[in-house]
Amino acid sequence: MAKPAQGAKYRGSIHDFPGFDPNQDAEALYTAMKGFGSDKEAILDIITSRSNRQRQEICQSYKSLYGKDLIADLKYELTGKFERLIVGLMRPPAYCDAKEIKDAISGIGTDEKCLIEILASRTNEQMHQLVAAYKDAYERDLEADIIGDTSGHFQKMLVVLLQGTREEDDVVSEDLVQQDVQDLYEAGELKWGTDEAQFIYILGNRSKQHLRLVFDEYLKTTGKPIEASIRGELSGDFEKLMLAVVKCIRSTPEYFAERLFKAMKGLGTRDNTLIRIMVSRSELDMLDIREIFRTKYEKSLYSMIKNDTSGEYKKSLLKLCGGDDDAAGQFFPEAAQVAYQMWELSAVARVELKGTVRPANDFNPDADAKALRKAMKGLGTDEDTIIDIITHRSNAQRQQIRQTFKSHFGRDLMTDLKSEISGDLARLILGLMMPPAHYDAKQLKKAMEGAGTDEKALIEILATRTNAEIRAINEAYKEDYHKSLEDALSSDTSGHFRRILISLATGNREEGGENLDQAREDAQVAAEILEIADTPSGDKTSLETRFMTILCTRSYPHLRRVFQEFIKMTNYDVEHTIKKEMSGDVRDAFVAIVQSVKNKPLFFADKLYKSMKGAGTDEKTLTRIMVSRSEIDLLNIRREFIEKYDKSLHQAIEGDTSGDFLKALLALCGGED
């Protein structure tokens, strides 16, 4: 087991057991497995309460006392996931990694995710121990086996990592940082094709401290994070490996927190991943993983394991976890630091927003109008032609087609489309045919008409549109419905929620930079209204108004600074605190604003995921986002979707919709990531 660096604080959840007696433990384990059945509670209690070093002593004592192999007896007595977990804990860490890799490359197919996880995250020392353990356990050369089971640039990077020769000098040369930034930029963004060798050499050999500075400078120089360039330039397992390397360079505990979350979210549990991480990190950085997990996913690792597993398997995992971070009801200081760093990244990122629908080359509105007329004339309708034309033209080009259609045929294209197509496809195609502001105005009108109000649609639109977009929506609403949007919101909503929506609907958000002194004052107001400030300084009604004004009118750069100051002041993340302290539509509106400020494409990626998960599909939300973001940032949304949910938006749509609606959505999606 790798020891923490001298002076470093131990961050594992498993410690040496005080008063340890290997003979006594060996006897207790023998008794637990003797006779009919086995005492699984006794087995898990002993093995999950001892360090790996102590477990090796128990193995030796067991063999000395009984002439038997403890791991062989455990395999015989236990079954399933519980057996895999307990046996994993009994192996020395390097031998456990060796077994995982052997399983990953044995038989038909390769478990690339397992290879990536282990080889991207281990230190030089751990890598050397792994190679030796593999040779000892299987009498085979690990490098040769990996070369025999993988190929291409993916194979080359695995071999580089396997050498365990990453530089470990903390002294960083600024000149070399700048040179590496330039080399990476020229190898990817500036080159026709990609020079993968440069990515492999730099990411596979430079020290962690050096690479963190390279990533910071890369963002400043190019306006995009290194991850975005990797996704744009690389592909397949090689892309996934390089992204994992970058994540581990930035924060190995955060990488594992994300892996654990993905192992348990949704239907089914990826038990092999869950076991591998809980075993391998229990004496390294489990406390850091827990803290980051709590911050990032707003629930404790303990509670997620508790809800996702069962029996002795669950009890063992919870012992390895070491504690429930929800019990204290607040963040650790380290978790607050992680939240602060997330806002810092949001503040410096200058990500270019890109849609998936662009103006068609050699656009001919006359030919398009004739093709659409032909597709709708006579018996039956040629939906494929309608989808192909409308999803591959920009909105400005669609308006030209509408005008040309009327000039040629004396007919209204929208009316003809309504009579020829129906259902989800009709809502999507007709939405694409409307100018964006008129489409948003219609969505707001539909959210407020009839019995009940669709508050989520109101929040989604008003919390995410720019000032210019909001002003255009107001004009379109007045033109189409002969009533102001403010009057409509006033008559259909109430209380603080109404005030928030009306404030957003004015389109008067400031557009300047940050003001540090003002940001600190604003953070204090937020702390007071969320009831975590030490000294409240105003009446609650006045504070509520000021808090609403801050969130609804301050510029995005200023709000990012406010939220950072809030963390420094309170050790809390503002989004989590709003969710905890507020309720109902007011809470949902404020959370949407905060999420939009932090990362608007991620906000929409989350909305799309939720519209398609579980039983049934929320076609209205799915349609609204695909239509409204297709020319703005749908490409960015796609990237956030695959990053967070480990599958592409294309795959999610394909698995959740069908027919012509599916075809149209995939055309808007613009490709498979």
TrEMBL record:
GO molecular function: calcium ion binding; calcium-dependent phospholipid binding; calcium-dependent protein binding; cholesterol binding; GTP binding; identical protein binding; ligand-gated monoatomic ion channel activity; phosphatidylserine binding
Major subcellular site: cytoplasm
Keywords: Acetylation, Annexin, Calcium, Calcium/phospholipid-binding, Cytoplasm, Phosphoprotein, Repeat
Domain of life of the source: Eukaryota
Gene Ontology CC annotations of this record: late endosome membrane; lysosomal membrane; melanosome; mitochondrion; nucleus; perinuclear region of cytoplasm; plasma membrane
Localization annotation: Cytoplasm; Melanosome
Keyword Acetylation listed: yes
GO biological processes: apoptotic signaling pathway; calcium ion transport; mitochondrial calcium ion homeostasis; negative regulation of sequestering of calcium ion; regulation of muscle contraction
Function of the molecule: May associate with CD21. May regulate the release of Ca(2+) from intracellular stores.
Record remark: domains: A pair of annexin repeats may form one binding site for calcium and phospholipid.
Family statement drawn from the similarity comment of this UniProt entry: Belongs to the annexin family.
Protein name stated in the entry: Annexin
Species in which this protein is naturally found: Rhinopithecus roxellana
Gene: ANXA6
